[in-house]
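[#protein-structures] MJ: dropping Putative sporulation protein YyaC here for a structure pass
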Amino acid sequence: MRKIRGNYDDKNIITKISQQLLNIMDKNNGNIVIVNIGTDRCIGDSLAPFVGTILKENDLQIPVYGTIKNPIHALNLEKEIRSIKNKHPNATIIGIDACLGKKENIGTIEIGEKPVYPGKGVGKELLAVGEYSIMGTVEEFDNGIEFATGNNIRLDFILQMSKSIAKAIIKSVNYYYIENNEIAICNL
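AK: finished. structure tokens for Putative sporulation protein YyaC:
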């Protein structure tokens, strides 16, 4: 699978990501789990929990973990991943997380065939999550301290980026169910 990358407000990136997700679902017979990593205690790190919340509110027919109400973060990561793997032993995990990057890449969403490495951008070594990842670049790498406090990141930016990721996931799940003669289940 080739890596796909583009800006969150580019309508084409939603289609490109959803096509990659559809390929992943086809390859795994729809047996995927979405794991959103982050916390609402930091604006930049709330990207994935907002994605999880949007997906849950839309009754997505695949397992989704990590929301604003029930986040998966550094303190509960290992316990939650162990529990998810016990509940879904043969599922392919797609990890979603915010990340730091170059200034010109802020706003970029990337999907790739690699795990998420939570906390890497702020120097933490935590459990790698998933076989695939969706990453959203929310802040410049040089501003790791600002990322921790969230002072330079607008909440609306995080919400819009979260909606783009959620739309791509919903679109791919709907296509998968239609392709397999089942009913499309939600819209965003």
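MJ: nice. Helices lie at 11-27, 47-57, 77-87, 144-149, 155-179.
AK: one more thing. The chain has one domain: 4-179.
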